[in-house]
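The authors assume throughout that readers already know how a fold can be written as discrete tokens. The format is easy to grasp once an entry is in front of the reader. For illustration, here is how one protein appears when written out as sequence plus structure tokens:
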Amino acid sequence: MDDQRDVVSFLSSSAAYGTTEPVEHHETHGSHVFLSRTRAYKLKRAVRYPYMDYSTVDRRRRMCEREVSVNRRTAPRLYLGVRAIVRNEQGNLTLANDTASDAVDWVVEMRRFGEEALLDKMCRRGELTLPLTSTLAEQVADFHATAEVQKTLAAARRLAGSSPVISRPFATPAPLPSQPASWSAGLGSPGGALTATVHCSTGGRMRASSAAVTVTFISTTSA
């Protein structure tokens, strides 16, 4: 696999973004995310899993382009594009545009938004209301209803292969903080679970997105 240590070190430095402010660095199993004051940059790790292949520079470029293309459908103001990481004449790494032919690596460039807007943060503040989640469920349903239909066997096989990986984290969901009483008034199911399920008709065809979306909220209550 490619050695990305120099790239990670470069993107972790404030000099990469022409600022002196500290840079936040977050890691997942598939990416490094670097947060400057106004921008977020996602570097895909040089890894290969059965469901995800970022093992070469070209694969990472194509997956960055694909991520921007897919996510601009729902967040066009956040996804700004793809940037190349190249070496200048002095041999130092620098950010360049997406037409660079000698890229060392590639990143997705996004507009940074406030952490307080994340749904888990809103939940902990008691601001994740039923009307908000209902609106979200409706938007997700609309998105799936208009998703591109994939009629090939290969598409079905890809979805079948990904399903166990996608569903595994939801097998034993972590409990969320207590919610306002209005959440359970007339809507609570046994055990304090509030479940909103949206089914999208596919007419027997496989869509690019999954055909059914289930949003489950676990409301914990004190004894």
Summary: The CA atoms of residues 2 and 110 lie 24 Å apart.
